[in-house]
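Morning, I've got a small favour to ask if you have a moment. I owe you a coffee for this, so here goes:

…
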Amino acid sequence: MIRLHVPQPLSAGAAVAPTLDQSRYLTQVMRLKLGDALLVFNGRDGEWRCVIAEILKKGVILRAEEQVRPQAFGPDLELIVAVVKKSRVETIVEKAAELGAARVRLAVTQRTNVEHVRLDRLDAIAIEAAEQTGRLDVPTVDDPQKLATILDAWDPSRRLMFCDETGGQPVMRALESPSPKGEGERAPWAILIGPEGGFSPEERERLRSLPFTTAVSLGPRILRADTAAIAAMALWQAAVGDWER
């Protein structure tokens, strides 16, 4: 069944007005008609079965009929990735949404070649991936910040898996260490992926000195940023994420 993300509140009987582009998708691409059903979520009120109640010249109106899934959230995982080429950033955001990340933070490192980042485009990619994968929330995508600024404001209760191309512990071994919050309670995590040119010696030294950081290796091959992000998230999910279910 078609899934659609909307910002409006959802409750029994609520009228929901999708955007004009969404309305065109429903009626012109998917050929839905009055009374046809689809699934709608907003990241707060769970997933609802809605029907097309009205078809107007400039859009459609949906009516929420019943909640089919209560609101749920995935693991508290952030992905921090240095800004890379536009197409690779878009791939990273898409795959982060598919792999369950709650937040994507774009970082500017000493070796980052900054390109213009369109947050609206990245948000749209994250929403589309959430719609397709069945998750009930959409990861946020942050404006680029200097890596040093991100680290200065770090919450030390969040563990940071720093993917270091110069070497570190194998990921699965590193993730075997117990959570500082205690047995049975998972600590929040973040994964850090550097730029194509790697981290500078100064950045690497600082990262390795931080008490909440674990330096890991993604194997013997040097990976591009998008490949590294996908590999790291998949390994994290397999070890301590919701793939354990």
